[in-house]
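[agent] plan:
  1. take the single chain provided in the ticket
  2. run structure prediction with default settings
  3. attach C-alpha cells to the ticket
  4. add a short note for the reviewer (M.T.)
[agent] executing step 1
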Amino acid sequence: MEWMRVETDEQLREAFAVRMEVFVKEQGVPADIELDEYDDSPAACRHYIVRSEEETIAAGRYRAYEPGVAKMQRIAVVKRCRGTGVGSFLLKAMEDEARGEGYRASILDAQCSAEPFYVRLGYETVSEEPFLDAGIPHVRMRKRLAE
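[agent] step 2 finished; step 3 output follows
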C-alpha cells in the first residue's frame, strides 16, 4: 500500500472515481455537488490517493482554510477496505504533508458516523451540534499539527 500526491490527470480521475463510488453511489450525495470549485483548480487544493496493487482504494484532499489551518476534505475509502487502516494511513500522510507546508492545525467536517474514527486520530469536536452537509449530519473537528 502506498499513498501519493496527485500529480497527473489520470491520478485525479482515480481520486474522483473513489469519491463518486463512496459519496454518490453509496451515500446518495448528488453528483453535481460532489465535485466543486476546488476540484477545478489544481492550485486550490492538494489531492491524495492510496493505491494497493495498482488499484486506487482511497482518496482525500486538503486546502488552505485560514492562515496556518488546513481543511481536510473528501476523505473516502472504498467499502471493502474500510477498517483495515487505509483511512488513518491516508489522513496521517495528508497531515504530514500539511505540516511540511507550514500548517499548524487541521480542521475537517466529519460525518457523525465517522466521528469516533477521527477522535482516535487526535481530532476534537468543536461544533456545538451537528449540521447537515449534502443532507448528511456532520460535526466540525480540529487537530493541532504543530506548535
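[agent] step 4 note for reviewer: The chain has one domain: 2-144.
[agent] ticket updated
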